[in-house]
Specification:
Elements lengths: L1 E5 L3 H12 L3 E5 L11 E5 H11 L10 E9 L5 E14 H9 L7 E2 L4 E7 L2 E7 L4 E3 L2 E4 L6 H7 L10 E8 L1 H7 L2 E6 L5 E7 L4 E8 L11 H11 L5 H9 L6 E4 L10 E2 L2 E3 L14 H16 L5 H31 L30 E7 L4 H5 L1 H11 L3 E7 L17 H15 L7 H4 L6 H13 L1 H16 L8 H10 L4 H8 L2 H15 L7 E6 L4 E5 L4 H11 L12 H7 L2 E3 H8 L3 H13 L3 E6 L2 E6 L1 H8 L1
Amino acid sequence: MKFVIIGGGIGGLTMGIFLHKKGADVVVNERALNVPVGGNAFLMHAEGVSILKELSSGFNPKAIPGKFIDQFSLRKPSDEEIKFQKLDPWQCIKRKDIVEFLYTLLPSEKIIHGRVFSHFLYKNEKVIAAVFRNGDIEYGDIFIGADGGNSHVRSAIFGETNFTPIEVKEVVGLMQNKELSARLGNRFTKFQHDKKSISFGVIPSSESEVVWYIQYDPNIMDVEENNPAAMKMFCTELLKDFPDLVQEILEAEDYTSTYIWHTKDFDLLPSFHKNNVVLIGDAAHLALPFTSAGTTNALVDAHTLQSLLMGKEDIETAFQKYHKLRAEHIAKQIQLGRDIKKDFLNPASRNEDEMVIPLITRQERAIKNSKKPKDISILYFTDPICSTCWVIQPQLRKLQLEYGKHVSIEYKMGGLLPSWDNFNRYGITKPSDVATHWEEVCSFYEMPINQNIWLEDPLPSSYPPSIAFKAAQIQDTGKAVLFLRRIREMVFLEKKNIIKKEFLYAAAYDVGLDAARLIRDLEGKAQGMFREDLILADLLKVKVLPTLFFSNREGIQLALNGYQPYESFEEILAQLLPGIKKSKFNTSAAFLFEQFQSMTSKEFSFLRGENEVESRYVLTRLLNENKIAQFESPSGNMWINNFNAAEEKIA
């Protein structure tokens, strides 16, 4: 069976490489006379990068090009930061580099240049050959259209495409600037006008180059001539209100390679094939560039389709499954692009806090509260600096693993330390008293605690980090739990004063929250939410932290106060839900570190049900294998998940 691919861009080359590796007879037909290296750069999701690695296995080519991007900063023209968030992760790659990379993976005789598609030849309603404008004819059995958004193959099998009107245009440029690339680091920085439909983005694409772009409503201003002088004048005038970084880039650019992209899309096709002709990439589906998904989608299409074609099913079934596997995801991306465009064109209606950042995907490890009510709900009153709340972490984590199907936990702040003015709680009246108390707690419960913060940089109150937790809950209740864990690690192990916004900002970023928004909410809505927690704690007569109220569906309520062994948690669950059964969980290190990105030695041994000597042996081995990292504290260590990085290195 012979496969004829029309279009030698990223999708077409990827398809050709996969088929060739599996021994198929394949030819890639490219319209350009030489290697097509036009275009500037784009963002590719980790899913696309993994496909490139699979493609190159066994070929030992040069490293996959591009620069890893894992931060996103959204700012106003005033340079005020609106959002700052961790990305899940992307790579910025020059189109030229990725095409040349793919060319190294396919024998040159499999690629024929100078072939511009004209039409198909048919026999009994099936295509038997592709005809090109230079008169060449390529016969085959299956024809794959990978010729981009303006696909002639798509028009040949489905007729003319109804594109959406062009309402947003994009200017794209690429420039050499080693110093700027280093300054930007791994960050995608975007400036969005708060009153006009104009934005500017800049992303490092290598150690020495950056790609920049402007998205704009042509009704505001447009440019007719596509020459360097006219383009510079247009960009400078359009972005005259934007900050110094933007002006620096516009001044340094020579505009010889900049171009204007007329953005458009079309509705999802009911099928990606007709008889023995099938489409992939932008030829099959086109989303607006706001989603930054085009290149990754082309790679995923090729990967999905080749696996089906090389399977045991007939061609028609393979094509139908291909559409079924891809259509729902693509439809969501098309709609997402349209939703973001609508917001972009209506800046007055935009809510800064709710602005969609399509590059960000939820971390799988985020603890999500199910919409379906659980059998038992727990109202948990805690505080970021409560040492007893820290030492019951092993119990709560085991509860999550064994009884998570039956139990939900709602976190409330208890307000442990308003200030040191007239403070007296169980004999603690000053910061040095806390240091002594923490040392005793650490020794007795075997959870690492560095008490020196109370001697070197004592916290004046626990209210600011408590309010920060409420600010995290505004964004995502699951990630808020991760945020609470992170600031506890900072104060109990890393000796960081978590009243300081710089540490709250960093913790929010670490767990995938929008750090800039958290700092804004800290001064606003979160304060009212914190006061509501304190009022509720007072109504429920919460005197000790932690306090956990357990309630079943019949309204029966039981409570646990202070430190309690795990058996006490189980006893209450059994009283509220007779016959409750715990789930068995995987105690392997890989599973536990997937569930909990960081663990103390105590937590690790507790969850595995083994003594500390056995755990220390396992943890040391994992550390030597680079599968975990270690944070050393005077009173004990914390271990951080590095399994994915270790596997990446091996791969």
